[in-house]
Amino acid sequence: MKxxxxxxxxxxxxxxxxxxxxxINLATALAAIGERVLIIDLDPQGNASTGLGIDRKDRSVxxxxxxxxxLEIEQAAMETAVPGLSIIPSTLDLLGIExxxxxxxxxxxxxxxxxxxxxxxxxxxxxxLIDCPPSLNLLTLNSMAAADSVLxxxxxxxxxxxxxSQLLETVDQVRxxxxxxxxxxxxxxxxxxxxxxxxxxxxxxxxxxxGEKVYxxxxxRNVRISEAPSYxxxxxxxxxxxxxxxxxxxxxxxxxxxxxKLRAA
Length: 265
Ligand code: ADP
Ligand code: MG
Hints:
Rossmann fold; 8-stranded mixed sheet; 42% helix; binds adenosine-5'-diphosphate; DNA_Partitioning_ATPase; AAA_dom; Chromosome partitioning protein ParA
């Protein structure tokens, strides 16, 4: 049976809001429940690759090769220590890609074309998660053109909603121009500190503005989550019991529940 993967891009043009952490841990949680998952690291910084234990020196293939058409998805995917989870790592080559493809008529469609070519060959992934750079650049646009939906991590801080309208506007533009099916997968609040009154206020505000798009699951600020990447492990492998890991497992089940609803509709 041919499986069509659900393609979710994790995007927010702000840095440090939890995109990579969410991509890694949501992917791990989905793999743990038996899904076959591929992460595509589209950030030249390569934090998702490092966080999943793929050292720079071992990145003989990369998302750059996929965008340039050099390699097919299957050829660029590397296995990780998490069973069922593969990654297409990123390398610093990605820094130059904008210039290299800027004049190509299909510059926004590079990733989509690669993924479509691959689904012909039944890559067999049930989820593809894309980790975006902190910018609404050509890489992020490629991810939105290729994706079914956008998952937006928002950090529970004063300026959380700032920038969100620009992000949503970009999603609208992509929908109008190249990907009419693109939806907002959901908004996940990250780095929540319940002792902080402001954080509680932010959660309320975001829920008031964005309604049911916001996941019930809120990811707490948890030091174990920030330690995990230096061991090259997702938090869920590093410390399954910590509050952060538990929250990401809960988020995964919420994502799956919403998926089922969508597919049934
Ligand atoms: P982005 O990819 O949006 O730039 P990251 O996922 O890299 O953001 O997170 C930014 C920093 O915050 C990283 O050092 C990460 O380890 C840390 N971090 C992310 N989520 C949490 C959390 N829930 N608790 C504690 N630290 C976190
Ligand atoms: Mg990141």
